[in-house]
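Anyone else keep sequences and structure tokens together like this?

Example one:
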Amino acid sequence: MEQPGNQPDDVTQAALDTVSEAVELADQDEREAVALRRRGLRGRLTRRSKRAAGTRKVGAAIGGAARRSASFTGRGVYSGGKWLSGQVLAMAPRLPVREQATLRRQYPDRTPDEIAEALIEGASRASAAVGVAVGAWSVLPFVPAIGVELATETLSVVGIEIKLVAELHEVYGIRAPGGVIERMTAYVGAWSQRRGVALAPGGLMLAASSPIARQLQRRLAARAGRSAFSLGPLLTGAVFGGLMNRRETRKLGRLMRDDLRGRSPVRDGWLD
């Protein structure tokens, strides 16, 4: 398995771009929800228009990757997760993770549980946006693009979920030890195991034969299989992909939240 910190290829860079666009779209949607709630039909139409524009930006990142990588055949997606796991480890240290202090400033006067719930819902909206965008952009004029779209959606949703895992650890005051690479590698392991970080995995996680590495590959292969539903005919893939992504990300977030809350030093409120 590749070491984290390697330079991501075009598909993985497109996934990073997609994560940024999808998270920004979800954050914007949340900011405008309260402001537009009382504006009636016109406000709702304005919000839908902005959301559609945001979804097009997410789709553009995915479509651009497909066109730049037309020779990509999806080999990573269909090779048992080995290629995907290497790209996830390369992508993870580059994800924009907010620290606890930043999250508390952005969500003032909220408890740790309230911030955690906001993060889970925001990530769920972001992963849903990726599923919708892939479904809407899945009619590109060359077959190899299908493998690129599938890989990009898989990496994008996994990136959104790893970012969520990392920020939930920040909220509950259980940051993984080590530098950025070690910390984000630990969060990749937490994502694959569906529970919070207990010990820093160090080099053990990167050994191709280790149990955590094999579990990561199985998780990624299963995630790629679910992503394939976004490529359904017409707009059925967009609808189904968005709903499935939202449900799976919310489920992961709540599993992680419940595990972290049980051993958090701030489960009864902020220490200060």
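And example two:
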Amino acid sequence: MNMTHRFLIPITALAMLATAGTALAQVAARAPDRGTVQQLQKLSAKPTPKLADGRVDFNGTWDHLGGIEFVRPVKRADGSICLIACGPAPGGAPPAPFPPVQTDFPKYKPELQAKVADLKKRQVELDSNLRCQAPGVPRIGPPAKIIQNAREVVFLYDDVNGAFFRIIPTDGRPHRKDVPASYLGDAIGRIEGDTLIVETVAFNEDTWLTDNGAFHTKDLKVTERFRRVGDTIEWRATVQDPAILVEPWSLKPQVMWITDIEVEEPARCEDRDVPHIIDGSHHDNPR
């Protein structure tokens, strides 16, 4: 198998690529402009829906080319298969749209640079994201579906590591005091105008912020902003961890757009890669 980047994908997920490729082809046929600037401009020009109480409506299934879609298998003339960054598909078809890749990196304090470098070197060994665990926040990216009522919003994720959810109160209650630390943390939210603001704390220390050794402490705080414009949402996330970071770190914004393709149960993530590792190289963060 020819890969432009060598990386770990759970074997079960690889077994589903043929089926996933067929499903993605069907979606592409229904929406050939999916994720293009032209499509997003058209959708953002629509009126922004509101609930009966006047608040902006964030309900919906949202497309942002997430989940397993960073894997785009292309069969080459020699019979080999390229998985990502493969260029034009056979027949001259352009490559599918691709979410923005995070190119900058959290700025760690000087005394922690050696630790980051060591974690980066040992990513394949130490990164829990490569072991079917929840990616953490903000690494998991924007949700695939949002369910909203007067008291809370629920985020559903269709991630390459499986299905995850977050329940976020929006009725003014504070963070819980007795909640154990977790992969996705404890979140509370509020709506200000056209923007849903979500603040999350109480993380465990088992996840990274992104690839290449970007660790965090238990004092991590992540603020996400979901700004609805027409039938699009702009997602932004900012990380604060003052004990280790010189300054807050903001991720590259992503745009989500409404879709009628419903979220389905993803393939189970099963880690059976370790015996097959050839070297310690890994993929860039696709989220």
